[in-house]
Amino acid sequence: MAPARKGEAAITHCRRRRNPYIDPMRYYAGFCILLILAAAGCGPKTIQEKITRAQQWVADGKFEKAAGELPELMRQMPTDSVVLMLGCRIYMGLNRPDSVVAYAKKFTALYERRIDGYRILYQAAGAIDDYKTQLFAVTQIGFLENDRPRYYPEIARLNFEMGSYGLGMAVCEEILKADPGNTQARFMLANGLASVGQLDSAIAIMSDLDRKNPGQIEILSNLGSFYATKQDYASALGYFQKATTLFPDYMPGWFGLGHVRLSLGDTVGAREAYRQVYQRDTTFLGVDSILRSLAPSRF
After folding, report:
1. For residues 158 and 122, what is the distance between their CA atoms, to the nearest angstrom?
2. I need a surface site. Which of 58, 253, 255, 274 has the fewest CB within 10 A?
């Protein structure tokens, strides 16, 4: 190989020397390119990829992991139907009905024609006894299905749960106009009448139900309660005795029987009835305190 000329040696020497400004500038340029790609949706953690990953975690039952993505997803897409429904599914998996209600309320407020949101809202609200929200949800379901009468029984029940007895009875009467023999509507109507003090009307309806549906624990127990409220303890006694004979594990029946026997002055019989309750559930309606008051030295 011929020796390099003087000029060529100088050029070769310059090529081999490390320019302290070249490498840092190269890395900075590469970093800028990555930022541009990420901004264009080409980065490794786009919002859609986060949604897909969270959905997969939900499918795999990894709800805690999926929940970790929610704050960022809600910050970037607070009104997106997929994100809001994802929040519902995550908190359903975590057994957090209060959070499900919160997400479902946001969803239904934005997507009023989506019936799936109202179904989730109804279910979650029921888990926390939020009857008002349940009533709203089931009413909207009936409206969207164009079949509100189908949901009248539940609408009536929820009104009774909230103490809106007049509204509940009005819905029951609407049911009975179309179906006079509807047992569920008549049962709820009788309870509504009893709640507003119309005990004779309540007893008349419930007694007719007892004749047509003999041996039904709810009917027997309610008749016992209605008569006890009227202070007709002799009649109440018969219904509670029948209820506890047919259904020996039904604690409200034993508790009612204890109350009636005590009202009739039968302390021994009352104590035995309350003891039947205590043997099944020591915390039921303060039964332990009642037994202590009846037999402090023996309990």
Report:
1. 11
2. 58
Q: Give the number of other Cβ atoms within 10 Å of residue 171's Cβ.
A: 26
Q: Is 80 exceeded by the pLDDT of residue 231?
A: yes
Q: What angle do CA 152, 219, 232 make, to 5 degrees?
A: 125
Which domains occur in the chain, in start order?
45-146 (1.25.40.10), 147-212 (1.25.40.10), 215-299 (1.25.40.10)
Cβ proximity of 121 and 133 under 8 Å: yes
In this structure, what are the phi and psi dihedrals at residue 138, rounded to the nearest 5 degrees?
A: -70, -30
Query: Three-class SS of residue 20?
Result: coil
pLDDT in tens, 70-128: 999 999 999 999 999 999 999 999 999 999 999 999 999 999 999 999 999 999 999 99
Q: How many residues does the chain have?
A: 299
Dihedral of CA 209/214/220/224: which sign? Answer: positive
295 pLDDT band, cuts 50/70/90, is: confident
Q: Report whether 56 contacts 79 (CB < 8 A).
A: no
Question: Is residue 175 a contact partner of residue 156, using CB atoms and an 8 Å limit?
Answer: yes
Distance CA 212, CA 223 (A): 14
* Contact between 215 and 184 (Cβ < 8 Å): no
174-200 confidence digits (pLDDT tens): 999 999 999 999 999 999 999 999 999
| Distance in angstroms (rounded) separating the CA atoms of residues 69 and 71 | 6
Residue identified by tokens 């209060």 is 98
What tokens were used for 153?
């029984």
